């Protein structure tokens, strides 16, 4: 993951995303430099328009945030059901 972050940082500051630069950033951050993963990443990004990919990625990231809000809303009725069930049991043994 740190290799991807390094590539994004290099792209953001306008530096060339190549093996040497990624190695430098990862090493400067104090993370383990895995040369095979860096080579693979650089090869994968060879013909990729990073700006365009970031635009489409931001749309994909926004969708799960909405889904998380729905899960929170669903959690409340379950808590109410548990409380109602507990009240019913207390009426039996109360």
Can you give me a brief rundown of this structure?
With 94 residues, the protein is mostly helical. The chain has helices at 2-12, 19-28, 35-44, 50-93. It folds into 2 domains: 1-47, Arc Repressor Mutant, subunit A, CATH 1.10.10; 49-94.
Question: What's the topology here?
Answer:
Layout (H helix, E strand, L loop, with lengths): L1 H11 L6 H10 L6 H10 L5 H44 L1
Helix pairs in contact: 1-2
Record keyword descriptors for this entry:
mainly alpha, 80% helix, Arc Repressor Mutant, subunit A, 94 residues, 0% strand, 2 domains, 4 helices
Quickly count the helices.
4
CATH fold description of the largest domain: Arc Repressor Mutant, subunit A
Strand content: under 5%
Query: What's the overall average pLDDT, rounded?
Result: 81
* CATH architecture title of the largest domain: Orthogonal Bundle
What report would you give on this structure?
The chain is mainly alpha-helical and 94 residues long. It has 2 domains: 47 residues, Arc Repressor Mutant, subunit A, CATH 1.10.10; 46 residues. It is built from 4 helices and no strands. The longest helix is centred in the last third of the chain and has 44 residues. The model has no long low-confidence stretch (mean pLDDT 81).
């Amino acid at each position: 993951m740190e290799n991807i972050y390094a590539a994004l940082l290099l792209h953001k500051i306008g530096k060339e995303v190549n093996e040497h630069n990624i190695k430098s950033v990862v090493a400067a951050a104090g993370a383990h430099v895995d040369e095979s993963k860096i080579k693979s990443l650089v090869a994968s990004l060879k013909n990729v328009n990073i700006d365009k990919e970031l635009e489409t990625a931001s749309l994909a990231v926004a969708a799960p945030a909405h889904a998380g809000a729905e899960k929170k809303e669903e959690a409340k009725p379950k808590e109410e059901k548990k409380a109602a069930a507990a009240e019913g049991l207390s009426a039996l043994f109360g």
